[in-house]
């Protein structure tokens, strides 16, 4: 297995909370999938969960070397959880096409959040 790229991002939870408050559903619908919104909104305090997913998407865009734009849209990335609760990335649309075109076969992600900050790492891998 070869490393295609790595990415990391840290975001202030309050900043994401302000964007969610200010733009209501417009921000959430632009950046997060319906599944992500349902998960975050089901939590006692959704803000850290939204912030961690935002950080993960930024970290993936850095690992791909594309940023968020034509090769990787916000909703081309969906952060889910496996049966044990570990974060997992699902790609669709242009993000999936970019990964396939560049031989990216797996993207490992890690999320964390504390009182003020959320952080995420992404490792894009090529090969078996």
UniProtKB/TrEMBL annotation:
Residues 5-99 form the 4'-phosphopantetheinyl transferase domain. Mg(2+) binds at residues 9, 58. InterPro entries: 4-PPantetheinyl_Trfase_dom, 4-PPantetheinyl_Trfase_dom_sf, ACPS, Ppantetheine-prot_Trfase_dom. It is found in: Cytoplasm. GO terms for biological process: fatty acid biosynthetic process. Keywords: Cytoplasm, Fatty acid biosynthesis, Fatty acid metabolism, Lipid biosynthesis, Lipid metabolism, Magnesium, Metal-binding, Transferase. Signal peptide: none annotated. The keyword Transferase applies. It comes from the Bacteria. Its cofactor is Mg(2+). GO terms for cellular component: cytoplasm. Its EC number is 2.7.8.7. GO terms for molecular function: holo-[acyl-carrier-protein] synthase activity; magnesium ion binding. It catalyses: apo-[ACP] + CoA = holo-[ACP] + adenosine 3',5'-bisphosphate + H(+). NCBIfam families: acpS, pantethn_trn. Transfers the 4'-phosphopantetheine moiety from coenzyme A to a Ser of acyl-carrier-protein. Belongs to the P-Pant transferase superfamily. AcpS family. This is Holo-[acyl-carrier-protein] synthase. It comes from Haloferula rosea.
């Amino acid at each position: 297995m070869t490393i295609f790229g790595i990415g990391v991002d840290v975001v202030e939870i309050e900043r994401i909370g302000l964007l969610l408050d200010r733009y209501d559903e417009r921000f959430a619908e632009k950046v997060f999938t319906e599944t992500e919104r349902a998960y975050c909104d089901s939590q006692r305090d959704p803000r850290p969960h939204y912030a961690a997913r935002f950080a993960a998407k930024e970290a993936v865009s850095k690992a791909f070397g594309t940023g968020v734009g034509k090769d990787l849209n916000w909703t081309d990335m969906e952060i889910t959880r496996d049966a044990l609760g570990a974060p997992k990335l699902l790609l669709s649309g242009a993000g999936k096409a970019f990964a396939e075109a560049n031989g990216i076969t797996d993207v490992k992600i890690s999320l964390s959040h504390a009182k003020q900050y959320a952080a995420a790492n992404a490792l894009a891998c090529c090969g078996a």
